[in-house]
Every structure is written in C-alpha cells, then in structure tokens.
Amino acid sequence: MKQQELETWQKVIDEIKINIPETAHTWLNNLEPALPLYENPSNGIFLMKSNQGFGIQVLTQKYLSEIEEALQKVTSLKRSVRIVLDDTKPSKKKIIKRPQEHALVQEQIDNLKQMHSFCGLNLKYTFGNFVCGENSNFAFNVAKMVAQAPGQKYNPLYIYGNVGLGKTHLMQAIGHEILKNFPTLKVKYAKAEEITNQLTESGIVLAERNSKMKKLRDQYRNIDVLLLDDIQFAEGKQRTEEEIFSIFDVLFHAGKQIVFASDRPPSSLVCTPDRLKSRYEWGLNVEIQIPDLNTRFEIIKKHALRSNFEINDDVALLLAKTFNRNIRELEGAYNKLSAYASIQGVEATTELAQKILNLNANSKKITPENIIDKTAKFLGVKKEDILSCSRSKDIANARRLAMYMCREITQMSLPEIGEAFNKNHTTVIYSCDKIKKDALTNKELEETIEDLNKFIKS
Length: 458
Known about the structure:
Elements: H1 3-19, E1 32-33, E2 45-50, H2 53-62, H3 64-75, E3 80-85, H4 99-119, H5 137-148, E4 157-160, H6 167-181, E5 187-191, H7 192-202, H8 209-221, E6 225-229, H9 238-253, E7 257-262, H10 274-280, E8 284-287, H11 293-306, H12 313-322, H13 327-344, H14 350-356, H15 368-379, H16 383-386, H17 393-409, H18 414-421, H19 425-441, H20 443-457
Parallel strand pairs: 2-3, 4-7, 4-8, 5-6, 6-7
Antiparallel strand pairs: 1-2
C-alpha cells in the first residue's frame, strides 16, 4: 500500500479496536485490504485478507458489523466486508521472498480482483486444501483433468454426493485452477437458487423486465466456465430449469466448460424434465462418498493447521470418530472446540472436547435422516414423499413438522436443513415459523409436536 493508504488503514484498525474487546485485537494485526483501499468493487463488497484462519473465523462471526462501521467512518464508503484466507503470506516466520516469488504473490492478488468482482470463488477452496481419500480420489483426479483442459473432456462434469462431503470445495477448486492456468478465461460460480432469485427479481417491474432478463442471460452465457452448484434446488421450478437448459445449450455448443454439483445423481431428480436430466448425464457423473476414518483424521488435522490452532492426535481422532456423517459437521466441531480453547486460554484436550461438544450426551446422535424417517412413521406417510415435490396437504404438513423438529433438536443451520430436504433456507424459515405460530392456537398440534419429539429421541 502507498503511505497515504497505510495511514488511512491504520486509522481503520484503530477505530475497530475501540469497538471490540481487547482479547480480539490480536486478530487485527495481520488484517489488511486485499485490494487498493479506495477501489470500489462492482458488487459493493470490500475484500480483506488475513493469514490467520482462526482469526478470520472470530472476526467474521462476532465483529463483522463493527469492522464495517469502522471502515465507513474512516473512509466514508459504505461496503459489506468479506475476509478471506491469504495462503501466500507466512503465518509464523518471516520469509524473505525472491523477486520471482513477489511476482507470483502479486499475480495471485491480481486474480483476487477477478474472483472478487465476478467469479464468486472462496479462496480456501483449492486443490491444495482438499484432502483426498478413497471416497473422493476418482472425483478429485477428474476435476484436475477438467481444470487442465476446460471444455475439452468430461463436459459437462456432474459431481454428486451427500451434504457436506466436499462437492462445493472440489467445484471451486476447478475454478481456481482454471484462473491460474488460463487467466483470460471468464469463470462463474453460482448456486441454482441464485438463478431462481434473479428470475423472480427480473419479473417484478414490467418496465425493466426485458433489460433485466438480458442482463441475467448475458451474465451466464458470456462466460467460458460455468460452475453451477446445488442444482437440486432447481427441481420443480419450471422457469429456473428452462433457463438452465437454455444456458447449457449455449455454452456447451460453444465448447465452454460446465460443471454441475448436486446432492444426488441425475436419475434421482424425479421432478426434473427428461430433456434437462439428459443434459446432466451427457458428460461424466462422479460421486463423492462419506470419507473413512483415516481420511476424516487427515481432514481435521489439515483444517487445524490451516486455522493456526493445532490439536493433538488424540483429540483429532476423537472428532474423526464422532463426527462421521460429513466434513462440514466435522470442521464445525473443531471450530467450536478451538474457539472455546483459544478464548479461554486452555489446552484443547479430549476431556474438553467431550464437555464442550457434549459428546457423552450425543452418543446416539440425532440426524436429519433420523428425524425424517421417524416423522414419516409417526404420521403414517412415506419418507420419500417428505423429500419429494408433492404439495398435498398431508405431505406438506409432515415436511414442515420434520423441518421444525430439525430446527429444534439439531444444531444445524437453516441452509443445512434446507439441503437435507432439498429445499432452500427460505422454505425452512416459512415452515418453522408456520408450525410455531399454528402451535400457539392449535392444542392438537402442540401435543403432536411433544409426542413426535419424544418418539424421535426414543
């Protein structure tokens, strides 16, 4: 940064320190702008970087609003802040870089601009950060081949697997690698739900509909690589599926690379039109499965190393054995444990892990699958119907109840619950709010919730 920018940035840091506890000041030491301070990104997001993964977690989860307020107060620019991990900067020892290494770092920062303004990629989702095991070896190698020759083989690539197994990580790693190897190519990562939201917005104001639709279509068609995630959320949404079909045909026939990700194979998208389903099946379908114990152990050790709060092998093994459903759940357990240990200034032992994560009480862990299965049995409907697109009254009520129970019993976030039911988080919010509101005036429903709660936990 230039001297004037350095002085301004120091004022931002000083202002942040005024508004957050002193115990959190240590995480500000390595925080800096990823882009020039007064560069105004098109999407209104100001990108900061840090080489401390755990510090990013603390600042993002607890103090993001204070950081945004400080930035606005000092620079008079109102922006949303996003903090990303800077893998190019050493976290402990200062290393003198050769000129070639400086050039490489600058090239990576320059790529940040492109990612930040358009691509939608998360800097931590690279091939280097992906722990490959027997569960993901084939998918990993295919993804690398796609990144080395986009549009030339395995097009489209369709990655599927259960929630939290690394599909998004692998998909975004393809984008990062392509930007590295082919910096002139335009890469776009998006979720299917975004297309639905954009289509809805484009039709709100009739006078602007045509221009908004053109802008939307240009956004997805004038690119070289499309990474479309969570396509199961497009299922049953006719306008979204028609748009995906149209985008696919334009890109595919132009020789552009397409990568899809979903929580199930194309054959299981029962509400998807056959013509779109066939497009999903044109290239190569690869599955990511649940990682085995050794792979989960390596995942948690690497995550700990990246977060600058390492744990001993006994603790890592305990987490790997206990949280065996998906990677997201595993890393979430580590984050909770490391946050507590760091803030309290204590060692992360197995005893502490059992206490903080309530492992003894959760020896029989209740999962969304348990809740859906038991809700179906309790209400006399089929589990498959709850997960289907059916809108019949009985099925819709069972689905809402199951979502509500997931919200009440588990520690899952709204998006995670949505993924378990193949719905978006707004549907989960509506369902939970409706059940909660109806239960206030419906004694029978209140009793049903109590009985179902006991049945699920039995």
